[in-house]
Amino acid sequence: MSRFHEPQDPRFQRLNASLGVDRRLWPQDLAQSRAHARMLAARGILTEADRDALLAGLDAVELELREERFPFEAHDEDIHMAIERRLTEIAGPVGGRLHTARSRNDQVVTDLAMYTRERIGATQAALRELMTVLVARAEEHLDWPMPGYTHLQRAQPVYLSHHLLAYFWMLQRDRERFAFAERQSGRLPLGAGALAGVNFHTDRELLARELGFQEVAPNSIDAVSGRDFVLDYLGAAAICAMHLSRLGAELVLWSSSEFRFCELPGEWSSGSSIMPQKKNPDAAELLRAKAPRVVGHLAAFHGVMHALPLTYNKDLQEDKEHVFDAADTLEATLAAATGMTAGVRFDRERMRAAAADELIAATDLADLLVRLGMPFREAHGVVAGLVRTALEQGRSLSDLSAAELAAHSSLLGAHRADYQRVLAHDSWLESKVSYGGTSLARVREQLALARTTLRSSPEGDAHAPA
Ligand code: ARG
Questions:
Q1: pTM score, two decimals?
Q2: Which domain holds residue 412?
Q3: Residue 125 and residue 172 share a domain
Q4: Distance from the CA of 81 to the center of ligand 1, in angstroms?
Q5: Which CATH number do you get for residue 414?
Q6: Same domain as 246, residue 185
Q7: What total of structural domains would you count in the chain?
Q8: In a shared domain, residues 257 and 317
Q9: How far apart, in whole angstroms, are the C-alpha atoms of residue 93 and residue 417?
Q10: Is the pLDDT of residue 422 over 90?
Q11: Is 272 a catalytic residue?
Q12: Which of helix, strand or coil describes residue 67?
């Protein structure tokens, strides 16, 4: 296989070989080779007898791989060379004809594009599952008040349903990003040859149809050197993993003894080896910790591609490890997020009590003054003064007398009844009537939109299968 007399330095082989990583591309490689053999015969480049011998040989190779008895050899550089070697051992010299009008350069990127599309399909299904669970949990907790936070300080109350649906919309945008990455992986590189095209009238349209590609890559140089579909995939995966890390972080926080907003199911918790009372949210913590690893794959492979001269360079061999680990990591965390979200039990009373902190109504009090004619900035100052007085004297806002209110603002002194009404808990949430807000009517509207969104394709195509 080599024009050199010297055997390769084993240290070079260790660096150069990619078999340990790319062996999982064998199903794509076999599918591609079958389509390629059929196309060559259809174009008269191979005889039908040669095609049939190749297809039978590929079947035999597949059986060995499937049953994990494929005889890998120490000098197999990658899965593509290993399969071709074995095919030739099984089928005889005709095995050598399979590589007609094909280079490893268009072969590897075609396999990886097929693989990436398959993993995107699995990720899309997993995303839909998690989103379905989020909608169900939101419906179940439609009117459970909880504090909404900014700076992790109690800010304004919201319904738990509204908070859960926030994750739904993050994941919907992830679906859109994965759909984009899928389209970017949908241009067939095969047929580009080493870089310049091949010396045969091949039928790339036929290959594209057989292998499930939407179109044929129109430039052979771009086809063998481009990997931006990998970056699109890794980008979508990195953002999605980041979203899951935020969900994981909130589950850790909310299940802590300090919050006690929820309890994670036993199936998703670990005990401590030394402290019998502990119930550790390990899975939720790992949602946090796995995300930067996916981001790392994006950054690392972006670095590989940066300033890389055209066309194929061995640098590009690194693409696969990043895709494989990103996909494995993301799918494992998506499954865990789904399991935990489905099983977590929320504590209605704890959440309600935390949301009943009167200070949380400060914005609503300011809005009352606005409705009574005061500019918002001024109202903000008045309410800040009330909060200071109440905190200094260890009293609640609703304790303050009309005279005390009047000392801060005559307008407020004259409207103590309205003031008290604003401080009555239920008004805080139901006053958020704007589109996308937390009032029940708006959350119901949002739930309906979420259900429609789930029924349509990732990018909102209403004709897509349900
Ligand atoms: N294992 C290599 C890769 O993954 C195969 C391509 C090698 N092509 C070449 N011209 N050396 O990229």
A1: 0.92
A2: 357-423
A3: yes
A4: 10
A5: 1.10.40.30
A6: yes
A7: 3
A8: yes
A9: 95
A10: no
A11: yes
A12: coil
